[in-house]
């Protein structure tokens, strides 16, 4: 009898393992369907068979309907898709040059694209979402629309994540190396803030610690979105939260302006309740310096 039971268990295990092996091609097929970044020898990503195109220094998206669906397997590399929101034309030139210098120092030359900021003086979609005949409109809501359009592009392209910067950011020493060092320890997340404004006040200089690998901490340390990594799930959540646009991008994240479960984020700061997956790095890896923040082209 004991031998018979051992035979049955062995047979069951064989069937189970065989079932797993038979399913493996489906998993591999699923992974193969995920978008893969390609690039040229200079490190610039290309976007074949997508709705993206490169126009000079800017990455642009052709207008197509966004479907809020997520692929089943996601692996995030924060430096695979790096974008900087910047006003096109002469109005954003000074900040564009600042970013090029700053990112070259950080080892990101040729590894990022500019993303067109919404012009709150002329944007027709912004006017429509604010129930106006035409702009000028609220500059901060224009900023919210700039970020949301980026999320919509992520959803169409099905990027696992992207790292987004505003064009007045200053990066800590060894930025790229330190971000890469924490890549394998990233938990499931909606947003990881790489810089923030404790109490709503902008830090004007970096932390003393400019060398250690940052620790990822859970929670919402303060507003500001000058540097953050957002997952595809986070992009979906924040697109839904800020359509039509009603708040600036950090307002859509921190829950101050949303009720009725419109977002999966914390709504009770005092009780320490966090219902969304919001993380931040310590020490900070970026800040908004006075010199860059005062350049022409900001909100």
Automatic annotation (TrEMBL):
This is Glycosyl transferase family 25 domain-containing protein. It comes from Effrenium voratum. It comes from the Eukaryota. Residues 81-251 form the Glycosyl transferase family domain.
């Amino acid at each position: 009898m004991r031998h018979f039971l051992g035979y049955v268990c062995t047979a069951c295990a064989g069937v189970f393992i065989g079932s797993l092996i038979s399913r493996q091609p489906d998993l591999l097929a699923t992974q193969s369907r995920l978008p893969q970044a390609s690039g040229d020898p200079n490190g610039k990503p290309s976007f074949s068979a997508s709705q993206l195109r490169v126009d000079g220094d800017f990455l642009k998206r052709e207008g197509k309907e966004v479907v809020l669906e997520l692929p089943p397997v996601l692996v995030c590399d924060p430096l695979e898709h790096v974008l900087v929101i910047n006003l096109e034309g002469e109005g954003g030139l000074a900040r564009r040059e600042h970013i090029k210098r700053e990112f070259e120092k950080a080892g990101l030359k040729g590894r990022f694209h500019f993303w067109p900021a919404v012009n709150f003086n002329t944007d027709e979609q912004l006017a429509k979402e604010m129930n106006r005949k035409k702009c000028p409109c609220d500059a901060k809501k224009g900023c919210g629309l700039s970020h949301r359009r980026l999320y919509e592009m992520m959803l169409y392209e099905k990027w696992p994540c992207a790292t987004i910067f505003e064009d007045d950011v200053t990066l800590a020493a060894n930025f790229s190396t330190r971000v890469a060092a924490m890549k394998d320890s990233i938990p499931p997340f909606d947003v990881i803030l790489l810089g923030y404004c404790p109490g709503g006040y902008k830090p004007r200089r970096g932390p003393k610690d400019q060398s250690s690998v940052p620790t990822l901490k859970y929670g919402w340390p303060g507003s500001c979105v000058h540097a953050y990594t957002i997952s595809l799930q986070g992009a979906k959540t924040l697109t839904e939260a800020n359509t039509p646009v009603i708040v600036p991008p950090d307002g859509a994240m921190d829950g101050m302006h949303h009720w009725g479960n419109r977002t999966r984020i914390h709504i009770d700061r005092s009780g320490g309740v966090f219902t969304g997956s919001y993380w931040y790095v310590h020490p900070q890896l970026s800040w908004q310096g006075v010199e860059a923040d005062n350049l022409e082209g900001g909100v």
